[in-house]
């Protein structure tokens, strides 16, 4: 069912500093910062030859990554995102298998403009998994 | 400097259960379990079209992932591994930039039979970074 690893998301307190680490120290291609007020984060993408790293910085009140950064003040790997061909079919199969889909179970439009869902970390090896329709 | 994302490593207590989640629930291609006594872990690889997920289970006394699992009893994302063309040149550049290389700074032969180094999470957005010579 799952296809490509679309991205690995890393939550950070200071996205300018994290961007500099990836650009200057690790020598990667780093995008500009984009505010995503609908998602409560600002994003920067690190373009690798086969996938991308998504840096996330909290934006506004009640950011979905605020609690994670309280627990991980230096930042840390927040989630992995796998691509699926049909997100509703994937959701129905996962629910039939007893896996928990976060929220109301309806795909939302994610930071890349495509339908996404998040799966419960307890059902997936302690890792938050995002599914994105390819 | 960094190239492809070689893998994302997920530490788990029960690699058979985690393998079943990826094989049966997420429908991915999952390898057999391999004991890596030199590294204190057993590994299973999830083959995705563009990269791989490495499941890690503690093996023997003093496994390098034991403390991580004490802090993260459900498991969790342990590290990311980026490929570099020349690991010693990469190390020297990183050290010149003030980044900390773990251990004695000499590349070791990793679980894939290639030279690897680990970088200090405090210098890399709170994430443990492995570099592997491509």
Task: Report what the structure shows.
Two copies of one chain form a homodimer. Chain A is α+β, with helices and mostly antiparallel strands. Chain A has one domain (about 5-134): 2,3-Dihydroxybiphenyl 1,2-Dioxygenase, domain 1. Helix content of chain A is about 20%, strand content about 35%. The first copy, chain A, has three helices and nine strands; from the N terminus they run E-H-E-E-E-E-H-E-H-E-E-E. Chain A has helices at about 15-25, 65-70, 85-95; strands spanning about 5-10, 30, 35, 40-45, 50-60, 75-85, 110, 115-120, 130-134. In chain A, strands 1, 2, 3, 4, 5, 6, 7, 8 and 9 form a nine-stranded mixed sheet that branches. The longest helix of chain A has 11 residues, at about 15-25. Chain A is globular. Chain A starts with a strand and ends with a strand. Chains A and B meet through strand 1, helix 1 and strand 6 of A and strand 1, helix 1 and strand 6 of B.
Task: Sum this structure up briefly.
Chains A, B: Residues 4-134 form the VOC domain. Chain A is of the alpha+beta class.
